[in-house]
Amino acid sequence: MDVRMALVCLSGIVFSLIGSTALTGCGGSVHPHAATVVASTDVWGSVASAVTGRHVSVKTILSGADVDPHSYQVSPADAAAITDATLVVYNGGGYDRWVDQVLAGHPDIKTVNAYTFLGTTNNGAQPNEHVFYDMTVAKSVATAIADRLTTIDPGNAADYRANTAGFCRGADAIASSEHAIASTYPNTSVVVTEPVADYLLQASGLVNRTPPAFTSANENGTDPSPADMAYVLNLVNQRQVASLLVNPQTSTPAMNALQDAARRAGVPVTQVTETLPNGTDYLTWQRNTVNQLLAALQSNRTHVRN
Fold it and tell me: Alpha-carbon distance 159 to 150, whole Å?
C-alpha cells in the first residue's frame, strides 16, 4: 500500500469516527439538537418552549386566529412533521382531532395530551376541551414534557427541570390571582359568548349565567335562538351581570350586537382568546387575561350575586 492509499484509508476511518460521535454523543444518547418537539397550536408550543429552552427546537403547526383548530384539515407537510417528531404536544379532547388521526397510524410516537390531565366530572359529562385556561393542567403538561425530554436528552435534564419549576411558579401566581377574584367577588354573575374560558370562571368563583345552547350555537358558527339571545340581552341591559366575556376570534352580527349592548349598558367587555396574542407567551397571555377580567369587575360598581 503506497502513502497516498494509506492517507485515504486513514481519512475514511477518521470521518467515520466523527460521524458516529455526532450521531450518538459521548453517552450513546440522542444528540439534543436532533430532537424536535411539535405542538398542535401556539398555546402548547409556548408551554413546550418554556420547558425546552435553548436545547430543543419546537415547531408549532397552528398560530394566530386565522385557523380554527377544531376544523383544521392537516396538510401532508404538517402530518410529516408530526410523524417525524421526537415528541408531540397537543390539546386533545377533540379540540385538535387531526393530531389524533395522524397519531393513530404511528403509536410509537411519544406524546403529551393536555386533556388527559383533567379530573373526572361528577355527572360523567364530557369536560370542556379548552383546558389551556386551567393552570393545573398547564403545569401538568409542562412537567410531562420535562419527563419525556429527560429520557430523550438526559444530559440536559437539570435544565428541563429548572425551566419547568419556573413555569409552574408563574402558573401558581396566576392561579393566586384567580383565587383572589373568588374571594373579592364571590358568586358574581357574568355572561360569555363561547365556552372558551370556563376553567378561568370556575377558578375565579364567577357564575356563568349564559344558556348552554347560546354558547354552543356560537361555538358551532350558528346564530343562537331568538329566545336565548333575548335572555342574554336582558341580563346585559338590566346590568344583572358584571362582565361580558367574548372570544374576539369569532365575530358574528349577533355577537357584535351583544357587545354594543354591553357598552351602552356600561357592562365591561373582557376578551378571552383561544390563541396567543402577538408577541406574548403562554404565561403573559393568561396573566393579562386575568388582569383584564379583574379590571372589568373593579370598574363595574354593581356586582350582581345569585
Answer: 9
